[in-house]
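Lab meeting notes turned into a lecture example. A postdoc, R.K., suggested we walk through two folding results consecutively so the class can see how the record format repeats. The first protein's sequence and structure tokens come next.
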Amino acid sequence: MSRRQAIQRVLGRFWTRTGFGGKTLWDWMRLLMLPIVLAGAAFWISSTQRGIELEIEKDRQQEAVLREYMDGVTELLLDNGLRTSEEGAPVRAVARARTLTVVRELDGKRKGLLLRFLSQLDLIRGEALVSLGGADLRGADLRGADLRLADLSGADLRDADLSGANLIFADLFGADLSGASLSGASMIGADLFNADLSGADLSGANLRDANLSRAEVTEEQLASATSLKDAIMPDGTQHD
């Protein structure tokens, strides 16, 4: 027996005793790949779990920011005379500054909650005690919200969901509503002068008596509304 054959025989006995005898190349590849697959799966699970934890933490932070804001506005009302303040009063400036700062930090859901909160307290109706001009309300979830007489002039409402909202006599002068959903919204008497409605969904919206003078909107969009009776059209004419 040659030396090479002797070595092969010894190795054959070793692999047989250790359970690795007769393994094909595919068997070896699977054995080598298994730890890699397991490590990859563990990394994916860990990354997914970390992502979930970060989302939960972000959600908690946003909830805390909104709660702190509401508490702050309540304090301005009860202890600092926001309700009875005059135009230009420092307390109004504080309320506006806090609002503009906070909305930039919130997601669409909580932007909607903030706006509903202000509306329910009558802080943005008629002569607004909290001005929302230039407020970042992009993507706000305002489905079915009661925003009657709300002063949203100059607000950034791009891609906001206002479907089914009550916007009767709302002031949307110069507001950016591009890409917003206004499907089924009641906008009777709303002031949309110079508003940007490009790409907005107006299907089923009631625009009776609304002021659409100089608004950025197409005939196709307006045709999808349920009513334009007596509305002032973008060219300044009054609809029948």
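The second example is placed directly after the first for contrast:
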Amino acid sequence: MRLFSFYIFRCLIILFRFIPFPLLYVLSDFLRFILKNILRYRVSVIQKNIDYCFPDHSEEYKEDCYQQFYKQFVDILLESIKGLSTPEAVLAKRYKLKNPELLQDYYEDQKPIAIYTCHYNNWEWGPLTMGRQMDHHIVGVVKELTNKHINRFIIDGRSKNNVTVIPTYKTAEYLSQDFNKPPTKCLIFISDQRPSDQSKGIEVSFFDKKIIFDHKSAEYIKSLDLPVYNANVHRLRRGHYEIELIPLANINGNSTTQEITNSYVSNLEELISLSPSSWLWTHKRFKDYITY
């Protein structure tokens, strides 16, 4: 069954190669209606998550957030598939790093760095485009997919153009054996999902609530004494994004794992407040605090 799913996935990639972006968004509008109104995909989860984070906002505000989120959510699903068959030069024009010069001194001094990002706007095009917009060699830490065939295909597709992708369970091994070898590296973490193992989490304040966030990434950053930035992905319009690098606030070589995690979460909260519909609300992120 998983092999069959893989072949369906490959067929979709081939099909999407020939769909121009304007037609892609016509398809997105149609699929959004099907998913949201007929299949009701994750509707309850999305609404409960939004309500949990914004209890004091009006029902009109939360409803607008839900409606706008679903529109962007389906866009990103289709963009992610199309990105796997779109030339990197085409994607790079649509997914631009605004200020790579912030990292140049580190690269010239052969100093590795770390970048935090999150499931906000289109995160899938990052591994496909950022390697050619930065001098550091990107090492992306990702969770593996349950379908091993699709997982291998996606990892192979991402592990090129100055990018290496490693699964989370191999991070410690990679850092001890290969991280300090040339070329100079940039570690990238997406750390805004609920830790599967709560013992690997750390409690932080998130929208005035105590929430468990992953802190292994902060531990790695602390142990390697890495300068750390946030990569904030801003949506300009459909299919066009700008990535802005922001130094992690109030962090230095003496910062603790808790302080690093707090700063990351604070930046995430600011992004969500800026555009609530841009965060990924479909996961049961708060299952330890609410009933889905």
